[in-house]
Amino acid sequence: MTVSIDIGEMAGGARAGMDLEELLATRLLVQGNSGSGKSHLLRRLLEQSAPWVQQAIIDPEGDFVSLAEKYGHVVVDAVGTEKDLQMIAGRVRQHRVSVVLNLEGLDADRQMKAAATFLDGLFDAERDLWYPMLVIVDEAQLFAPAAAGEVTEEARRRSLGAMTNLMCRGRKRGLAGVIATQRLAKLAKNVAAEASNFLMGRTFLDIDMARAADLLGMERRQAEAFRNLERGHFIALGPALSRRPLPVKIGAVETAGRGGSPKLMPLPEQPKAEAKDLIFTPSPGEAVPMRQRIAEPVVSTSDVLDQLSAADREAANAIEPAATLLDYGEREETIGRIIGEILAEPEAAFQPIASLYQDFQVRCRIAKLPGGSPDLQTFREKLSVARAGVEKGDIDDSDWQKAELIASELPEDMRGVYLLLAKAALAKDPCPGNIEIATAYGTRSPGRARWLLSHMEERGFLVCATDLRGNRIVTLTDLGWQTAPGDEAAA
């Protein structure tokens, strides 16, 4: 069966048709500068072919997610791990569902890795699932660059390999690549060379006009025609379009992208004084730069000496050991309160353990703690938990007792961090950032936090993974709990 879809009109008012079956066999390349109408053309093609063929769109800007409401496309946001995305791609081929891979919000490096993972998942499907599918890649020069850029070599190599597989070997697997690019010179030649159908839009650079003319079999002197094309007008050539270059005006679309060109509008009327205040006055809730923050008060040396002198006087009074269970209960409460007071002071969380223990002993004498102050080992254990900001009463759940039991078997410097991660996992909160973990560990260095997590992972206490947006996910192996994705650079 031959299916011809209407993409617009040719000169003279005749309808411009595209042979869909021929397109699946011969692929399509669309080129045009920004604002020439490439996205409009792709949307027209997608809308017209949606009832006839399965579609997968690699969308770096989130422009095509609007197809979901009218045409039933499933929007796949690039979250989770690469393994998750590859499994989703396999299910897409299995169930023949049209999808939009939304890469909005990712940097270029992660966009390339996510696109490569998804395309590999489509490509590696079992032979029984090789149904026809249009794979549309917008801004293809991002995923198949002609030269190395600012992205990592690993990301470029993986993405270029996936795009090459799509265009060179995808036909036998039912995958028909439709790639759109702003500049042919930026697109890898081995990817562009596999397309047999072309729709060339407005372009201004001589090198791009000359290359477009060569692809369409036009003379060099005719290349100037690409500079004069209006928005939404393209020169079409190929077995699915026309046997000779023909101008085509792309027809209207039924859905709209979320981007579009910005519209001019007058500036708001604003008195000069008020405008200045808006710029230089922080908004409510806005983070204040470090240089504008007022330094926290520092405890003076004289204050410390006075505190030590008072402690020596109090030490003269003998402290009788706790004699009743009530005394022991009050003792634990007092110890917890004293440690909390110590950590509430500026810089206390980062002081050496010896200094903190000396301060703790002084405070215990002042408070006349029943039974005297705990030994250094007990203090270190309680301090590691308090530094993490975890209290037993925070979560009333029997599962929490399992976390405390496992934490008690860990080295003391890991216990607080382990409970911090356990609390986040049990509450399904984002994974704590490096600064928060470093604070719980008693250091300012995010590098030390990363080292500690790696060390705990090597010893089998947890497993760290990174989702496609670069957020960290921690799984506590003994408990089977997993945190939500969290930004490791979060303050």
From TrEMBL:
Pfam family for this entry, one: DUF87
Domain AAA+ ATPase per the UniProt entry, residue ranges: 24-300
InterPro entries: AAA+_ATPase, ATPase_Atu1862_pred, HerA-like, HerA_central, P-loop_NTPase
Family matches, as PANTHER family: HELICASE MJ1565-RELATED
Protein name, UniProt field: AAA+ ATPase domain-containing protein
Organism encoding this protein: Roseibium suaedae
